[in-house]
């Protein structure tokens, strides 16, 4: 078996597992954040669920560690009261990013499992652990049972050989990989990294790469721990005998890809799509208004040192705001001890307390209309980090650009007196409580409805249900905001009718772990969504909400047009265009999906 198969087998009590099997697996760390956490609490209280093991159950407040938003502050307090009642550990607003906390506190280790309401929980692949972001229903179930269902994914292997060119960082490695694979060609796979370059990667570098697995559409990017990473985990867990989980020599992979990193270059992601990556050189001289260093991708001490090296003795360009947010409070303190905070402040940067920052729309890092930001975050979906445009780049590129006032590389930073500000800039880019409902004993397995054809790939959760509505927790209020951030479909919620069915492209629902992007469709009465593929977390959220989602390979033969009526048999997967009576196939419900569907949801 390979790594993911061994981890799942060990946590399912099996000697052997294979791709496609659906199993209940024990979860070593069950975590909810201040985003999603209040709904986890509500599910547990509404359904009178017990807590399986409080020693393995945690809350992390990282999306708004300042508590500056009244709704977030209220949600955080709801969690504190619940946690105190049950004796659950809370890593409060003074701690930092939850996924980093799991590694830092020894709550995750090589071969362990963890789930959290953070869609970047797969960051734990950096230490050879299985972390998975899930919706609030899944996490509540994990709190209660100590385990959740999971389908064993197919695996691929990526080998990185050669010598990294000067100024090519870990962030550049993953941006180069995104350039090659895009956002969905590895959708749903577990990926293992090998090669001479990988063996030398530090923990911080591995975290940077692993954290963008979500943007690649994968289940997880797994790194077999090297000696330094293993020793770090042994120290944090207090287990000197800790051993990594490694693939067998005869492990099976769907595919193997080999890259010569000597061909990699410094890159940026252009606004709107993390996988729209181009060379830094091609975007040089694009004027910026602000810069951001932080997030779970680039908030580590090595990132801070890289930025400090460039900022030392320099000033942030007049009119440019540089915002810096370390990932954890311990890293913040380390920056203070090493004199890095002073360098930041002397350069004119704003330094905030540890947390997710702009990426989560809850702290410093947001931008306004027309504002151009260069950021070390992992996502730059429209509206994700504000109303402006966001380029993604390495910490070195962000720091260099902050000094220059425009996008540039660390080896091409002019003196302030020599800077002529360019006029060029890119064209701007033109939503309380779930109630336990009684469901019929037998739900229909033959669906019929009018079709909405949305011929797009990579429709992410911010396009489906924008993060400005995340504080809404009543599903009845969510439907009105569906697709209001999807160009061409802003009025969808007003025009859709109960019983309608959506047909769309690849990777529908990529991005965040928000359940609202499913529940909003249910509120509107949409019967089902048919897509070539779904984002990993979105598919789980839909299944757990008893909302029919199905995949297809090719429906061209049915000649489906906007407004046609189709019928779908959930058991057989047969799909019929009622206009011309042509038939085709979609993937039928699995046994697990049908069981949850007929149950009216996970609970």
Describe the protein's topology.
Layout: H1 3-12, E1 22-26, E2 29-33, H2 37-46, E3 57-60, H3 70-86, E4 89-91, H4 98-104, E5 113-116, E6 130-133, H5 136-145, E7 147-151, E8 155-161, H6 170-181, E9 190-194, H7 196-200, H8 203-210, H9 213-216, E10 220-222, H10 227-237, E11 255-260, E12 267-269, E13 277-279, H11 280-283, E14 290-293, H12 301-311, E15 321-324, H13 329-337, H14 340-347, E16 350-351, E17 372-375, E18 389-392, H15 395-404, E19 446-454, H16 461-464, H17 492-495, E20 501-504, H18 516-524, E21 528-531, H19 536-544, E22 549-551, E23 565-569, E24 574-577, E25 582-585, H20 591-599
Parallel strand pairs: 2-3, 2-5, 3-4, 5-6, 8-9, 8-11, 9-10, 14-15, 14-17, 15-16, 17-18, 19-20, 20-21, 21-22
Antiparallel strand pairs: 1-7, 12-13, 19-23, 23-24, 24-25
Helix pairs in contact: 2-5, 6-8, 12-14, 12-15
Q: How would you describe what is shown here?
A:
- A hairpin with a 4-residue loop joins strand 24 and strand 25 (582-585).
- With 603 residues, the chain is α/β, with parallel strands linked by helices.
- The longest helix is centred in the first third of the chain and has 17 residues, at 70-86.
- Helix 2 (37-46) crosses helix 5 (136-145).
- The chain has three domains: 3-263, 2-Layer Sandwich (Aconitase, domain 3), CATH 3.30.499.10; 269-418, 2-Layer Sandwich (Aconitase, domain 3), CATH 3.30.499.10; 446-599, Aconitase, domain 4, CATH 3.20.19.10.
- It has a seven-stranded mixed sheet. A five-stranded parallel sheet has the order 4-3-2-5-6, with helices on both faces.
- It contains 20 helices and 25 strands.
């Amino acid at each position: 078996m390979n790594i993911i198969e061994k981890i799942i087998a060990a946590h399912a009590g099996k000697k052997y597992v294979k791709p496609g099997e659906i199993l209940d697996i024990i979860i070593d760390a069950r975590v909810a954040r201040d985003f999603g956490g209040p709904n986890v609490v509500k599910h547990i209280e509404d359904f009178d669920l017990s807590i399986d093991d409080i020693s393995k159950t945690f809350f992390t407040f990282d999306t708004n560690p300042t508590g500056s938003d009244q709704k977030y502050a209220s949600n955080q307090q709801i969690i504190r009261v619940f946690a105190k009642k049950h004796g659950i550990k809370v890593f409060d607003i003074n701690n930092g990013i939850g996924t980093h906390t799991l590694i830092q506190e020894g709550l995750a280790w090589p071969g362990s499992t963890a789930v959290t309401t953070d869609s970047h929980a797969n960051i734990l692949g950096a230490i050879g652990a299985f972390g998975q972001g899930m919706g609030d229903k899944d996490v509540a179930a994990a709190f209660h049972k100590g385990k959740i269902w999971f389908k064993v994914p197919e695996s691929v292997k990526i080998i990185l050989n050669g010598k990294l060119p000067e100024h090519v960082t870990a962030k550049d490695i993953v941006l180069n990989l995104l350039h090659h694979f895009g956002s969905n060609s590895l959708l749903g796979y577990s990926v293992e990294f090998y090669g001479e370059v990988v063996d030398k990667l530090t923990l911080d570098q591995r975290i940077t790469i692993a954290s963008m697995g979500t943007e690649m559409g994968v289940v997880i990017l797994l790194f077999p721990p090297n000696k330094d990473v293993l020793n770090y985990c042994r120290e944090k867990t207090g287990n000197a005998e800790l051993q990594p989980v490694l693939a067998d020599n005869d492990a099976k992979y769907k595919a193997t890809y080999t890259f010569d990193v000597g061909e990699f270059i410094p890159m940026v992601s252009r606004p709107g799509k993390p996988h729209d990556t181009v060379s830094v050189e091609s975007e040089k001289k694009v004027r910026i208004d602000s810069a951001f260093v932080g997030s779970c991708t680039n908030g580590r001490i090595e990132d801070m040192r890289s930025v400090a090296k460039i900022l030392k003795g320099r000033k942030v360009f007049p009119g440019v705001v540089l915002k810096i947010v370390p990932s954890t409070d311990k890293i913040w303190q380390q920056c203070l001890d090493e004199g890095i905070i002073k360098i930041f402040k002397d350069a004119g940067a704003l330094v905030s307390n540890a947390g997710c920052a702009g990426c989560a729309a809850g702290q410093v890092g947001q931008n306004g209309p027309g504002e151009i930001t260069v950021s070390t975050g992992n996502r730059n979906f429209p509206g994700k980090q504000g109303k402006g445009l966001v380029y993604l780049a390495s910490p070195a590129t962000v720091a260099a650009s902050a000094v220059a006032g425009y996008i540039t590389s660390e080896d091409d930073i002019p003196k302030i007196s020599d800077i002529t500000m360019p006029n060029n800039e890119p064209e701007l880019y033109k939503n309380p409580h779930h109630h336990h409902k009684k469901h019929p004993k037998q739900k229909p397995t033959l669906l019929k409805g009018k079709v909405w054809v949305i011929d797009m790939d990579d429709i992410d959760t911010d396009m489906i249900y924008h993060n400005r509505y995340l504080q809404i927790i009543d599903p009845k209020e969510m439907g009105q905001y569906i697709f209001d951030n999807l160009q061409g479909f802003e009025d969808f919620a007003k025009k859709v009718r109960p019983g309608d069915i959506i047909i769309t492209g690849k990777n529908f629902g990529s991005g965040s772990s928000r359940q609202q992007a499913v529940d909003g469709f249910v509120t509107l009465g949409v019967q089902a969504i048919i897509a070539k593929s779904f984002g990993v977390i979105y598919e789980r959220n839909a299944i757990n909400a008893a909302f029919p989602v199905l995949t297809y390979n090719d429906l061209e033969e049915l000649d489906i047009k906007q407004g046609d009526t189709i019928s779908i048999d959930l058991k057989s997967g047969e799909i019929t265009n009622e206009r011309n009576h042509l038939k085709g196939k979609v993937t039928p419900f699995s046994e697990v999906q049908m069981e949850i569907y007929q149950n009216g949801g996970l609970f």
